[in-house]
């Protein structure tokens, strides 16, 4: 959501610039350059990894000593067709971390909440496109691992998605 907001702000500034002097600008070389930049910027922003904000927050919580919980941890080498259910599993388990943080009053509660919100928002946007393979595991079928191993696997899965 943070990345999307930055993109909108940049697009709006470019819109204001062009709107005020649109026809005058198109008569100059600089105006044409700005016009082409406006057409190009939305494409580059869309190409940015939608999980970047989640990855940043995962880096913030990975060293937390407050969180001591076992979590179902999906395999990082799952079939590409199972990628969406794997991501869902990680975000479901993030909800468990969030509950643990509320109970123990963790110092990283806000970062965990950000991960959960940003992840679920991105997953909701993909819901219509997802097709689940019959061979994909349910979240509870994965091995339970400690918090550190869970975060390491989560980071690997997101990095693979961002390539």
From TrEMBL:
One of its GO terms (cellular component) is extracellular space. This is Interleukin. Belongs to the IL-15/IL-21 family. SUPFAM superfamilies: 4-helical cytokines (SSF47266). It comes from the Eukaryota. GO terms for molecular function: cytokine activity; cytokine receptor binding. PANTHER family: INTERLEUKIN-15, INTERLEUKIN-15-RELATED. The chain crosses the membrane at residues 20-41. GO terms for biological process: immune response; neutrophil activation; positive regulation of cytokine production; positive regulation of immune response; positive regulation of T cell proliferation. Keywords: Cytokine, Disulfide bond, Membrane, Secreted, Signal, Transmembrane, Transmembrane helix. It is found in: Secreted. Pfam families: IL15. Gene3D superfamilies: Interleukin-15/Interleukin-21. InterPro entries: 4_helix_cytokine-like_core (IPR009079), IL-15 (IPR020439), IL-15/IL-21_fam (IPR003443), IL-15_avian (IPR020451). It comes from Cepphus grylle.
